[in-house]
Amino acid sequence: MLALIVAAIVLVADQLTKAWAVNALADDPVVLIDGFLRFRLTHNTGAAFSTFARSGPLLGLVVIGVVIFILLALRETANRGEAIGLGLLLGGALGNLGDRLFRGEGIIDGAVVDFIDLWFIPTFNVADSAVTIGVVVLLISSLFRR
């Protein structure tokens, strides 16, 4: 249950921030820390770092498979760390899958909304952050598993 709550929080936060970005950043980026952090609207039709551009439908199917895998893995979650990590992964995957499903003209061909732009990292979003943090939490949790 903890994993599903975490996933729901991530999904809602991701979709709310993307809706804000689409409306507030359409014309100009917002500079928060000059030369370091700004909010800049981009649309990614590919995977991480814009690899596999225009492969949305294939990536969408892969993400659906990942979501199913995570849901099955949740049945055997051993501890809270794993539950939180899997919840973060699930919420992030669902957030970006939602873009692919609902922000395109066809089936699973939408572009993912990215808007957090750090000078040294390609532009990303809340869902991407959740996936990254989820992986770190799962790694740390596995180190301390008995």
Keywords, please?
globular; three-stranded antiparallel β-sheet; 57% helix; alpha+beta; 146 residues
Summarize the structure.
This protein is α+β, with helices and mostly antiparallel strands and 146 residues long. Helix content is 57%, strand content 13%. It has 4 helices and 3 strands; from the N terminus they run αββααβα.
Secondary structural class: alpha+beta
Physical arrangement of strands within the biggest beta sheet:
1-2-3
**Average pLDDT value?**
90
Please trace the helix and strand order, writing H or E for each element: HEEHHEH
Low-confidence sequence ranges: none
Task: Provide an overview of this structure.
Helices cover about 55% and strands about 15% of the residues. The chain is of the alpha+beta class and about 150 residues long. The protein has a domain at about 1-30 and about 55-110 and about 125-145. A 3-stranded antiparallel beta sheet has the order 1-2-3. It is globular and about 50 Å long.
Describe the secondary structure blueprint for this structure.
Layout: H1 2-24, E1 30-33, E2 37-44, H2 56-74, H3 80-102, E3 112-118, H4 126-143
Antiparallel strand pairs: 1-2, 2-3
Helix pairs in contact: 1-3, 2-3, 3-4
